[in-house]
Amino acid sequence: MSSIFAQLKARLVVSCQASPGDPLEDTDALRRMALAAIGGGAAGLRVNSAEHIAVLRRDTSVPIIGIQKQYGPAGLRITPDFTAAASLAAAGASIIALDCTDRTWPGGDPWRELIARIHQELKLPVMADVATLDDAVRAAAAGADCIGPTLHGYTEGTRGIQSFNWELLAAMNKQLAVPIMAEGHIITPAEARRALAGGAWCVIVGSAITRPGVIAARFARAIERWRTPAPIIGVDIGGTSIKAGIVASSGEISCPVQVATAAGAGREAITAGFAAAVEQVLEAARAARLEPAGIGIATAGAVDSHNGSIFAATENLPGWTGFPLAAFARERFHLPTAVVNDAQAAALSELYFGVGRGLENFVAITIGTGVGAGIVCDGKLLKGEHGFAGTVGHHVLVAGGRPCNCGRRGCLEAYVSTAALIREYRDNGGVLDGEVDDAAQVLLINQLAKQGDAAARKAYAALSGYLAEGIANVFNVLDPQAVLLGGGLIDGQPNFVQEVGSRVRALLPFGARRHPRVQSATAGRFAGLQGAATLVFEA
User: Fold this and answer.
1) CA-CA distance, 237 to 47, in Å (whole number)?
2) pLDDT tens digits along 223-232
3) How many CB atoms lie within 10 A of CB 113?
4) What is the 8-class DSSP label of residue 416?
5) Are 183 and 15 in contact (CB under 8 A)?
6) Cα–Cα distance measured from residue 72 to residue 137, given in angstroms and rounded to the nearest whole number
7) What is the pTM of this model?
């Protein structure tokens, strides 16, 4: 057994299979495909049916993971009984793969018994195909020799997931002593390398290599959606209001609505406002004979990219932390749903519809109540493991400085924000009406700065100095092509953006040679809607 696994260590295994009715569902076609994969460097194969394995064994001695798919009223099961396992072994399989999830299957043999009998009677190792970490732990305890998250995305609790779960791989690698075969939704060579770096024993790739129909369909769908894309409902959930509308593939917004967030009343009030906004847009869409194909949601807080839940949020949205927003929207409206942080959505809006269209690497910073950002690297948005990528407002600018609402001191956001602008204005002799809320006060300072008011200009000058320090840090860490600045705090202040750019050039090492590009973002008040919608267009 150990020699089989040694041959597969840190290597590629290619799954050569065809779905029922596929033109490639032919033994000789699959044989040629498998041999081509081996010629390209595959160290092993994963093959369905004893018939196909027997034919391949005449041509190759590489390890073959054998499976027997059985289709029935309950769905698909992999190697359901010992008779199927014995046939695979007789045909020349090196490893027998089984469905080891917690699903019940009429007429099949219990998978724990199958593992024991395959070991005792067939003298072959067993690969457990699982969907969750609990499945994997149970399979390892029952004696499975290797485990793959093959069925993640196909069981009731994981259905609909169409990307590899890196967190699951890490957890399996940490808790299990048996080899982990990275299988399921591995599409690119970069993902294969990442899987090995994440502790996978080997990588199993199927559709991305061996199914021309699937590969062609991926390209065809992308082109067709570009030609005639269905519109998406975009939603932007903020602490004060919830904006929603129909987003066309061009970024054009129609049927816009806005409702109060009523955040102070907690999670139920926020979700009620969200649902009301979407219902209004759907009603307007029906009247306009539009059929939205999904919902894209931008929201304050860190968003878990794996499931669209709110990983963390401030008290601007009480009770929002932990809320399964994507699941709530899908269940309520029965539409594909994507959720993204609002500042990250603004970066996507710039990437697809704004000045970021000609850029591959940039940072879009939104300045308002706080400082948020979205990072685009090689044309893709960076979200981070828990959705915190781009949280530039909470990197420390002044050690031990002003208290920040995140609990630390000296963060950029403590010096560049609504509250910071009001503070600087007052410190420079400006007078404000204490009965007016912060938003109204900032609007007044903004207008006064345009009119030449000394205190207002000094306030903005102070903020430009702090922001330049922060952006210089961003350039040193990420070295982007550009930093784009937007947000209500600096709307209509082009001199502010120019001043920040000049200060950044002066601060940066080799600034004169690097020519750091700092400019105004073009995304407007609907940036959150546009950016969130792009995630659904992409999907």
Assistant:
1) 48
2) 776 666 789 9
3) 12
4) S
5) yes
6) 27
7) 0.64
